[in-house]
Structures are given as C-alpha cells and as structure tokens.
Write a structure and sequence with these properties.
Chain A has twelve helices and two strands. Chain A has 296 residues and is mainly α. In chain A, strand 1 and strand 2 (138-141) form a beta hairpin. In chain A, helix 10 (182-223) crosses helix 12 (256-292). In chain B, a hairpin with a 2-residue loop joins strand 2 (350-353) and strand 3 (356-359). Chain C has 261 residues and is an alpha/beta fold. Chain C contains eleven helices and nine strands. In chain C, strands 5-6-7-3-8-9 form a six-stranded mixed β-sheet, sandwiched between helices. In chain C, helix 5 packs across helix 6 and helix 6 packs parallel to helix 7. Chain C starts with 9 loop residues before the first strand and ends in a 6-residue tail after the last helix. The chains are: A mainly alpha (296), B mainly alpha (439), C alpha/beta (261). Chains in contact: A-B, A-C, B-C. At the A-B interface, helix 2, helix 5, helix 6, helix 10 and helix 11 of A face helix 3, helix 5, helix 11 and helix 13 of B.
C-alpha cells in the first residue's frame, strides 16, 4: 500500500513537472527553473518561522513569493544591470540559497527543517504525513492531496490558455503584435512553476524537481513534432521514471528521488541513441529518394 | 568578540590557519577560472560540474573503500568531466538547446550521485561518514591533509592560467578569430574545462554543491562591472574571492553555528550587489544618480537660457527680472524655479536684488552658449536630417545640454559658422559683447 | 526628399526611438498612402527593423506618435498584420505548418476561446494562396527557408488585415518563393491593402515597390519610387553615417540623457 502511495505521489509530481517543463525548455528557460527551485529556500524558512511550523499554506506562499522574486531579479540584473543571462541566473539563485542556508543555521535550534530535505527530499515519508479531519477520519497523505490539487490547477491552466501559451512560447513578438501580452504569460507560467516546485519540494526535493522539469520533456522533445504530443509523451516518461525509479530504489536500497532522476536520465540516453539512429536512417532514405527522382 | 577577532588574526589555533588559508586558496583559484567561463558566456558550467562530481566521489569510494582526498578528487574529476562532454555532445548532435542540456546534465548526474550516496549510507559501511560533506561543504573541517591538496591544485590552476593567459583571453572573447589564427582551440578549451573541473572539485568541499557555482560566477560578474580589461578583472575577482574567503571563515569562527561556505557566498553576493548598483559607469544606481544630476543641470541651464532669450527680446541681457516674468516665458513649477535660482546664485551665475534676479557675466556666457547650441542643433537637424523646422525644437531641448565644446566646434564648422537658425532667430556668436541698454 | 500624402494609411509623426537612451531613429516624419507596396531600405543598422517594430508597438517610443488609418494601434490591432524576421523564432518548435498559420486567428478568436472550424478553413485558404496547402501537416523544422517564409506569409494572410508590416520577407528565400510572395503582395495591394516591407536588395526595389522609405538613422527620403529612388538620395542614405549624429547618440547613452526632457 505504501509503495503505491509513494509511486502515486511521485507520478503526480512527475506529470505536473513534465507539463510545465515542456513549456520551459521550449522557452529556453530550463535554467530559470533550476534557479527557482533553489532560491525558494529562504522563502520556506521565513514562512516556517512566521507561521511557527509546517503550515503548508504559509510555506507555499513564502516560497511562491521567492519564486517570482527570483524570476524578477534575474530579469532585473539582465535588463537594468546588463548582466548576461547565465551569470544573472547563477548569481541570483546562489545568493538566495546561501541566505536560506544561513537562516536555517540561525534557527537550527528550533526548526525541523534542513537543507538535506530541500536538496533531495524524502518521498519515502509521504505515507506517514496524513491529513486527519476533526472527525478523526483520514483524508490520505498530505503530499498526495496537495499534488493532486496542483496537477488539476496545471491541467486547467493549460486547457484554458493553451493558445496563449503556444503563441507566446513560439513567437513572443508576434503575440504582442496581435495583442497577447508575452510578459503576462511569462509571469503566469513562472508563478505556476514556483507553486509546483514548492509543492513537490517536501516530497522529492529541489534536484528531483529540476530533473523532472527538464528530463522527461527533453526526452519527449526528441521524439515528437507536436506540442500536444510532447505534453502527453513527457508525462508518460515522467510516470515511468516514478515507477521504475521506485523499483530501482527499492532494489538497491537508495534514495527514491535520486533513483527517479537516474531513471529519467537513462530514459533520455536510450531515446537519444535511438533517435540518432532513426534520424540517420531518415536522412539516408531522403538522400536515396532524391537520387532516384532527380527532378523533384 | 574582540578576543575572537584577535585569536582569528593571530591564528591562535592551527585550525584557524587551515580554514583561512584553505578558504582563500580555493576562493582565488575558482574566481580566476570563473572569469574565463563567465566571459565565454558559460557561467553555469561550474554549476553542472559541481553537481556532477557527486557520483564520481561515491564511485571512487565504492571502488577504493577509502576517503583518501586524492582518490576522491580523481573520481570527482572524471564524472565532472563526463558531464561537460555529455552536455556538449547533446547540444552539438541534437536539436536540444544549451540551457536544457545544462539542466538535464546537472540534475541527472546529481540524481545518480544521491542514489549512490544513499546506497553507500544504507550499506552500513562505517568508513562512509563524512562523504556527505561534499553536498553542503564544511570549510571548518579542513585539516592539514586537505590543505596540502588544495594548495597543490590552486597552484596548478594559477600556473596554467599564467602560461595560457593570452590564449585563454582569445578563446574567451572570440573563438572564431582564435581559430583563424591557427590556435588549437579545442585543446585549449579542454584545458580550460579541466582546470574548471579541478577548481570545482576542490571548492566543493568547502562550500557544497549548490553554492560552488557562486564561487566561479559571482566574483567574475562583480569584477566585470568595474573594468573592461581582463587583467584587472582577474585581479579584482581574485581579491573579491580572497576577501570573502577570509570574512566567511571569520564569521563562522566568531559564531560557530554559522556555516563558512554560505557566508563566503553571502559576502561575495553582497560585493556583487554593491558592484551592480554602485560601480562607476555601469552601476544601476550610478545611472539613476546621473539622471538626477542631469535634471538639476538641465534646470539650471534652462533658466539661464530663459534669462538670455528675455534679454534678446528687450536687448538688455543683464536686467533684473521677477519670477513671474521667467515663468511667463517658460512653464516652471514655482518651487522648482526658486530652488533652481538659489542654486544658480550660489554658483555665481545669477545675482538677486530683493525678489528680482539677473544674470552675472558668467551666467550670460553660459546662457548664451546653451541658446547657441540649441539653435545650431536645430539648424543641423533641418539641414542634415531634413526634419521639418516645426519639429526640431523638442530634440534640441535635450541635445543642447550634452554637446561638448569639441562637438560644438565641429558643429560650427559643419554648418559653416551660421548666423540664423531655421526659425530665423539669430545664433549668438562666441565673441559677442554683452548688450546692456540700461536706461 | 520627403513627400507627404493626404489621408495616409500609415502616418509617423516626429518619431524618435532609442535603445538605452541612444537614439537609433531620429525625428522620423512620414506618411504612406493607401494601397501602396512600400519598401523600407537603407544600410545595415539603419533602423529599418526598428521602425517596423515601433509601429507594431514592440519598442517604446521616445517621442512622437504613429497612426494607422488615422487610429491608434490598440484600436485597430485586428486590421494590422505583422511578419517578423524568419530567424526570430525557433523552427525546431514542435508544431505543424497549420498550427503556425492558425496563430494568425488568435487575435480575432479572443482570450481563452478555442479555435473554431472557420478559423481552420481560413488558415487552409491562406496556405493555398501561398502554395503550401499540401504541407499543412508538415513539421515546421522540415521546411526550407523559402517554405518557412511562405508559412509566415500565410499566417499574416489569415489575419485578414488591411495593412501588412513585413520584416525582410525576401531574405534567404529561393527565386520561386520570392516571385510567389511578390505576386501575393501585388494582389493584396490591388484589393486596396497597404503593405510595408523591410527590404535589402536594391536591384529589385524599383520593380517591387511603388513607394520608398529610405533610412539611415534618420529619414533620408520618403515618396513614390520614381521620384525618390535616385542615385543622389541613395548615395546620401548609403554613403556613410553622419558621424556627428552618432557621436551625440553615444553621448546621450553615456550621460543617460533622456531624448525628451
């Protein structure tokens, strides 16, 4: 039963990340998501202190604010400070992460929060943390419920604003020209990324969030030629990372989050090699067909 | 607190010396290497490597069963290296873009590392304790043996940079040009990647996986704001690195609950923020301040201009005028006007008598120059840019404040010493006597 | 030589555009009549694309205003079509030709609404006009440069606009595509639409365009091709920069001086 709960939670995280990640890599913003996933740490610590405990809503809020702030700061240093984007990302997230670690150390005495959990989380504890109603009835693991809500939000967001996300991702200046604000959709998407990062955080940690945001979409990107298919295929890869990751971790008795990232990486490597062969064969047949009909 | 400071600066315990020297050495070496990756616009390379060394460390431990720093460093270097090669390969041979390859490489390698690390931890091997210091770093635990390894590697890095300075400079600024010169660009890039890997592998033990990127990027980014010359940039980055190294070490010494690595990065970040905002020329606030200064300058010069044009209309440039008269000529806000006049009188460009103000000789000259520049620029715009005479005034309103004496001369020559502007108003001449028809 | 026209389709009034305070277009005043095919020409870095982008509201203006059919862009966006430079997007994007062309309808469809069947038909119709209807399912990365440009043109056509702004539509396309594009532009102009094109190749200027805007940081000339496309004006536009102007521009950037007080 616990195994199923863990795999279920992992899959929810994987699908949420894969969906948003598909847009991120198409917008060439993969590293911004990496930055956000680290930079939310001080937000979590501060929210933790102010709420006096692991109040999920406060944590979401604190981390969400920091997530948006990170996106904003990266843009700010890039635009106003004329700092190249990669450096702007690097400076911003390390600074905020350092701040977070210092805050953690400062409050170390009275906080059940540590950087290990931030970095690689512990999905194995998911079944233990359940929400219990006043009536004494258990609703199920908290992480599972939170992630379900997040996933529904993401699905609604993509369903309702598919067209807007599509056009602002492919051609932002054309989008602006027809009156669809690229900036607005940028921040809307980044808000959801922050939310997902934070929600996934406790269970899988920052690095797995990044691995799931980037790797399954990148794998799907190699295979497909349609955005809709890319969203579906990357979700499938995400789920299979969760399932096989759990099995791998169970077999060698290691971190589940780490194993999920490992499986995601292996999937990518396999698809990469296969697609290279396929593409080579395709070009060869294209060349052959050109030779056979020189008039075309 | 002062006791602690004294203990610290005198190295009262050998441990302090190790931590301080270690922090300084690795801060300097990574800052110097970081300048090149920064200029190559591959600032996040360090982030990838630092995440990718973890599986190497674990594998090295699994194979050798020991925590000998040299063995761990070798293992770490190998996977660090592979991550970069893999990343490059993915970008070169598929449609995947650089940022995706970067994130993919770092997160997957790190995931594998975490898997191996937890596997080792759960295997019950007692020798494994302390392997996880690589994750978060622990500069305070630097001991003699580590220091030897650090110094050796730091020296190697600095020597390599010294010998390949010219070549690195070229490939950082313009790879294609370096190629046309016949430089072995690929080999040089390999060497640069290798010393980056070395810098990361050593630094990571002090500051940890995540913050290692800052040790490379932040000093370089901060230094870039102060200079356009590579040699100065390297020196500055090294100084910033060393200073943060010492400060971080001190903070965690003075307050033992405080971690060294994050404080080193914090100090570095503060230096960087100060640079972003205050560095002369490029700093954000400096530019805002310049705009403020401009506003003051414009106000003063506009006032003098109004005095001059009023003087033109009654052929009396030095007569006293009321604030109402000035405001009738140009819409100033009353408070702004008063402030501007007070400043001008302090600077000696106007004098006042009761509530009346008049130009001094210096004020007259300055006002005349602004009017002259304004009208010459209007003429330039109509003659050379073919802008309609009714559109040139607005442009001239701001350009009149920026033209340098050198440009003024060229403008005058280009327009062949003009006497009237497009609106037939006279362009005041430089050697024009003051007309003062005081009746 | 700047020739103004009565009741223009496009009117640019006293336009100055700056990047980081440095003016890259100075005091542009021009008008383009209805139904013209207008070419914007000038050397590299003259501000040709900048002019189109500022018309499309993609760059803030430092001064002046732009009117299309005597209205603000926001009031009339649905009547205006824009074709960005082909290189400005990532052609590896996972999308089909039809997906891209349908973007031309997004402005009309409105926020949060789905594409309707009529939109799809309009898109197919536009693809037929550019001779790409057989490729509608094709992944966009498998298109040649010329085909990519045709797809962009088809996207603009589905907007069913009254004025078209195109940024270098002839750059890097094959001869057949160039011919096909200019035929479509002529047909549109025949229907009374106005077309403004950033163009590079001086050889074809006099056959393609009946109105010319000549730029080099400032407006050198604007008017009917036969009057404006002269050796003397070309020399003025292409014969080097006004060094004084660019130095003043640099100075404004260095001193952070606003273009307008």
């Amino acid at each position: 039963m616990n195994a199923i709960l863990i795999i279920l939670t992992g899959s929810l995280v994987a699908i949420s990340c894969s969906l948003l990640g598909s847009y991120l890599i198409l917008r060439k913003m993969a590293m911004v998501s990496d930055a956000i996933s680290h930079a939310v740490l001080p937000g979590i610590v501060i929210a933790f202190m102010m709420a006096g405990g692991r109040d999920s809503l406060a944590l979401l809020l604190g981390a969400g604010i920091l997530g948006i702030l990170t996106t904003f700061l990266i843009e700010f240093f890039h635009q106003k400070g004329k700092l190249q984007t990669d450096a702007s990302i690097g400076v911003t997230f390390t600074w905020l992460f350092a701040l977070g670690v210092i805050l953690v150390s400062y409050y170390a005495g009275n906080a059940h929060i540590d950087q290990d959990c931030v970095l690689y989380g512990e999905i194995a504890y998911v079944p233990l943390d359940v929400i219990i109603l006043d009536s004494g009835q258990s609703l199920g693991p908290k992480a599972l419920i939170v992630m379900s809500v997040v996933l529904v939000l993401i699905l609604l967001f993509i369903k309702v604003s598919y067209k807007e996300l599509f056009i602002t991702t492919f051609d932002p200046s054309f989008a602006n020209a027809v009156g669809i604000s690229a900036t607005f959709w940028h921040y809307a998407l980044m808000s959801l990324v922050s939310l997902t990062t934070v929600a996934s955080f406790e269970s899988v940690g920052a690095i797995l969030v990044v691995a799931l945001l980037i790797t399954p979409p990148a794998t799907a990107y190699l295979i497909t030629e349609r955005l809709k298919k890319m969203l579906i295929i990357s979700s499938a890869f995400g789920v299979s990372s969760a399932v096989f990751g759990y099995l791998l971790a169970y077999t060698i008795d290691g971190s589940i989050a780490g194993a999920m990232a490992t499986v995601a990486g292996i999937q990518f490597a396999i698809v990469f090699v296969i697609m290279k062969k396929v593409n080579k064969a395709r070009t060869r047949s294209a060349v052959l067909s050109l030779e056979s009909e020189p008039t075309s | 607190m002062t006791d602690r400071l004294w203990e610290f600066v005198t190295f009262a315990y050998p441990n302090i010396k190790y931590v301080v020297l270690g922090s300084i050495l690795l801060s300097i070496s990574s800052a110097v290497v970081g300048c090149f990756t920064f200029l190559k616009k591959k600032a996040l390379l360090g982030d990838v490597i630092s995440h990718a060394v973890l599986p190497g460390i674990c594998l090295s431990f699994i194979v050798s069963g020991s925590k000998n720093p040299f063995l761990l460093i070798i293992g770490a270097s190998i996977t660090g290296w592979i991550s970069i090669v893999a990343m490059d390969y993915i970008v070169r041979s598929s449609k995947i873009k650089e940022d995706t390859a970067t994130g993919l490489s770092l997160s997957v390698f790190f995931g594998i590392g975490i898997l191996l690390l937890t596997y080792i931890q759960h295997s019950g091997n007692a020798a494994q304790t302390g392997l996880d210091t690589f994750l978060f770093g622990n500069a305070a635990a630097l001991i003699g043996e580590d220091l030897i390894a650090f110094s050796l590697i730091a020296v190697i890095i600095l020597v390599v940079v010294y010998f390949f300075y010219k070549e690195f400079k070229l490939i950082s600024f313009d790879t294609q040009f370096a190629n046309t010169l016949g430089l072995p660009v690929r080999t040089l890039e390999l060497i640069l990647t290798s010393i980056t890997v070395l810098a990361v592998v050593t630094g990571i033990q002090a500051v940890g996986v995540v913050l290692m990127a800052a040790m490379l990027i932040t000093p370089a980014a901060a230094a870039r704001f102060w200079t356009n010359r590579l040699s100065i940039m390297l020196t500055l980055a090294a100084i910033f690195g060393a200073f943060s190294g010492i400060t971080g070490a001190y903070i965690s010494y003075a307050s033992p609950s405080m971690p060294t690595g994050p404080w080193i990065v914090m100090v570095l970040s503060i230096i960087a923020l100060i640079s972003f905002f205050f560095a002369p020329g490029k700093g954000i606030l400096i530019r805002v301040f310049k705009q403020y200064q401009n506003q003051r300058k414009f106000l003063g010069e506009n006032l003098l201009k109004v005095f001059y044009t009023l003087g033109e209309s009654n052929q009396n440039f030095l007569s006293y005028r009321s604030q109402e008269e000035l405001m009738a000529k140009r819409a100033f806000k009353e408070s702004t006007l008063a402030k501007g006049l007070t400043r001008l009188s302090r600077e000696g460009f106007v004098t006042h008598h009761r509530a009346q103000w008049a130009l001094t000789k210096e004020g007259y000259e300055k006002g005349k120059r602004i009017v002259r520049l304004h009208r010459m620029w209007e003429l330039y715009l109509t003659e050379y840019l073919k802008i309609a005479p009714d559109h040139v005034h607005e442009d001239a309103e701001s350009i009149e404040h920026v033209i340098t004496p050198e440009l003024e001369l060229r403008l005058e020559r280009l327009l062949d010493h003009p006497s009237v502007d497009p609106h037939k108003a006279p362009i005041p001449q430089k050697q024009q006597p003051i007309i003062n028809n005081e009746q | 030589m700047i020739i103004q026209t009565e009741n223009p389709a496009l009117e640019i009034h006293d336009l100055t555009v700056s990047y980081d305070r440095k003016p890259v277009l100075w005091g542009i005043d021009l008008s383009v009549p209805y139904g013209s095919i207008c070419g914007i020409i000038g050397p590299n870095g003259a501000g040709k694309s900048t002019l189109i982008k500022s018309v499309m509201g993609l760059i803030p203006l430092s001064s002046g205003y732009i009117k299309i059919f005597n209205q603000e862009l926001d009031e009339i966006r649905l009547k205006v079509s824009y074709v960005p430079q082909r290189e400005s997007v990532d052609w590896d994007f996972p999308a089909s030709v039809l997906d891209i062309v349908m973007m031309g309808r997004y402005g009309k469809v409105g926020l949060f609404r789905n594409i309707r069947k009529a939109d799809k038909e309009a898109a197919m119709n536009a693809l037929e006009q550019v001779g790409m209807e057989k490729f509608y399912r094709r992944q966009i990365s498998q298109l040649s440069g010329g085909q990519q440009q045709r797809v962009f043109l088809a996207r603009a056509l589905t907007q069913q606009a009254d004025i078209y702004f195109m940024d270098e539509p002839f750059a890097g396309v094959d001869a057949a595509t160039e011919k096909a594009i200019i035929q479509i532009l002529r047909r549109l102009a025949g229907e009374g639409k106005t077309i403004v094109v950033v163009h590079h190749d001086l050889q074809s200027v006099s056959t393609y365009f009946n109105w010319i805007i000549m730029l080099n940081l400032r407006l050198v000339a604007s008017g009917p091709t036969e009057k404006v496309f002269t050796q003397q004006l070309l020399e003025e536009a292409y014969g080097g920069k006004l060094t004084l102007l660019s130095e003043v521009g640099e100075l404004m950037k260095k001193e952070q001086v606003p273009t307008r007080e």
